[in-house]
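This week, think about what follows.
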Amino acid sequence: MRNERALADSRLPSLTGLRFVAALLVFFFHLSVEKLYDDGTNPVLSKIFNPAGGVGVSFFFVLSGFVLAWSAKPGRPAGEFLRRRLAKIYPNHLLLWVLTLPLLLLFGEQVAAGSATANLALVQTWFPRLDFFFSVNRPSWSLCCELFFYLMFPLLARFVGRFGRRGTWAVAAAAVAGVLLLPVVAGLLHGGPGMPLDVSHPEADSGVSVRQYWLVYAFPVSRCLEFLLGIAVAKLVKDGAWPRVPVAVATGLLAIGYAAAVVAPVLYGLAALTVIPLTLFVPAVAMADLEGRGSLLRSRSMVWLGEVSFAFYLVHQTVLRIGHDLLGHDRSWNAWTASALAAAFAAVTLLIAWAVYRWWEMPAMRLLTAPRSGGKSIPVASGGPRVRPGPELSRPRPAELAADKD
């Protein structure tokens, strides 16, 4: 039986590789929103890729709770934890805000001072207004949720840490139930204009209101259920209480959940239909790493893509929006030309993301996470671990990689 610190140091490179897959799902969703295709395939693409954005974001939220609970070490000051988390997300957010805002104004988009300020402060998703939570660099709405998660993590970790196995299972089940019930609760709300087509199923659920969409998709308290779920699952894996689910089975269930989300009403397709498959998928991949099983996701190229995925996620929609504007915002192309343009947009996004990661994100992390002393420690939400890492995965990670990849 390994001690808590040894298990927290166990590397989970496949989860890092998966980050890029999740970011790519969001890229494909926003690609379908841009309507590059003129040959009748855009409605099909919109239908297929519409759940992709929700699944990708839901994966990030569950994974965030899992990784933070997994890598938490006894005695780490809460102030140091919060400082490291801010150092991870805010420099990239600030850079993209500074670069994106003038570009949007240059291309004639209207950006109100209030929404831009809220976005800069990462409080935009507390307002049930489309022009607020999707302001400036639109993907940054999820960072507002993540910031709330980080503030809540010490309390949630202490809360989950109070329970034994049965109680932790109850917490996980309650979090899943909350995610499943959110669309039902949102369906009882009325008022607010219908959602524009770029954030809802174009042909299925155009009557969804902004308030309904906000409650299910953007409200930080609602999305914290997925974060709490990740914390509880990490504790169960550490305690040796999580069942061994083959990665292939978890992947198949996730594919079924995704297919259901394609045809479901928009509020259900955002997270409810994929939260259970994601809950099985994340620990299945983590346990495969711990047991030393082979995985393409652990390749150097996939891990590198995972490292730059945060910058890729923040950069991609600005590249798509500005790129399409430069080519002609109302223009569309045949399938071959549009696909070539999509590949070019992805390549440009990846190149910019690498530059941001190499010359901005990592230097900022090193500067802002210099060791300091003092502060109240964060409790670790786990009991006695019973999962043995594979021998090649038991080396401690560098400090900047151990808990800063969520």
